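Quick one, tokens below:
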């Protein structure tokens, strides 16, 4: 069962929610809410707007590695169907097979999405700033349900890739050893350079006294 959402349909050309209807009304419904428990970020990560410390990145890595398609709450998205355009025969032009999925980021941030994800998501082609939301369309097939599943996958991938883009990978022991060796070599070179400068100054002062 779907829950009807009381709002104005969006324009089929601009794909903006709340725009006046120019051609035809479209069906806008909300995906059914469920009581299932989805994977939420830990409280210490949920409110972070930026990742600064190694601990922050470690928490973010653990969350994103466990983040799955099913962790996007169904009740957080609105779906609309409209007629597709482009190739595909008369079927796509006569049925509402195009699926549009809208996810309002306002209620999501700090609940099932960490706040640090907003900044990289704002660079996504699916991002709309007023209000902050993701709008994903799919019209690849003649099946509205298949297109809806594709839109859901696109939404998940947009969130996943945005989060991964700002998380620093865990430093391996090999990398740590290489960095330590480079620092040790740099300190050794600096020490030798200081010794040479000291020897040069001492020799210069000695010649001045002679």
């Amino acid at each position: 069962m779907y829950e009807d959402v009381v709002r104005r349909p969006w324009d089929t050309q601009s794909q903006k929610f709340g725009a006046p209807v120019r051609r035809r009304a479209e069906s806008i419904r909300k995906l059914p809410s469920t009581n299932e428990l989805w994977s939420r970020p830990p409280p210490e990560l949920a409110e972070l707007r930026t990742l600064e410390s190694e601990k922050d990145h470690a928490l973010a890595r653990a969350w994103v590695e466990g983040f799955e398609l099913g962790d996007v709450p169904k009740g957080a998205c609105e779906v609309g169907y409209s007629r597709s355009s482009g190739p595909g025969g008369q079927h796509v032009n006569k049925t509402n097979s195009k699926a549009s999925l809208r996810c309002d980021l306002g209620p999501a941030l700090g609940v099932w999405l960490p706040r640090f994800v907003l900044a990289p998501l704002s660079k996504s082609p699916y991002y709309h700033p007023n209000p902050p939301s993701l709008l994903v369309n799919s019209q690849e097939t003649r099946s509205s349900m298949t297109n809806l599943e594709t839109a859901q996958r696109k939404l998940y991938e947009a969130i996943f890739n945005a989060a991964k883009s700002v998380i620093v990978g865990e430093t391996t022991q090999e990398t740590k050893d290489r960095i330590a060796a480079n620092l040790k070599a740099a300190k050794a070179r600096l020490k030798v350079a200081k010794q040479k400068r000291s020897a040069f100054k001492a020799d210069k002062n000695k010649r001045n006294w002679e």
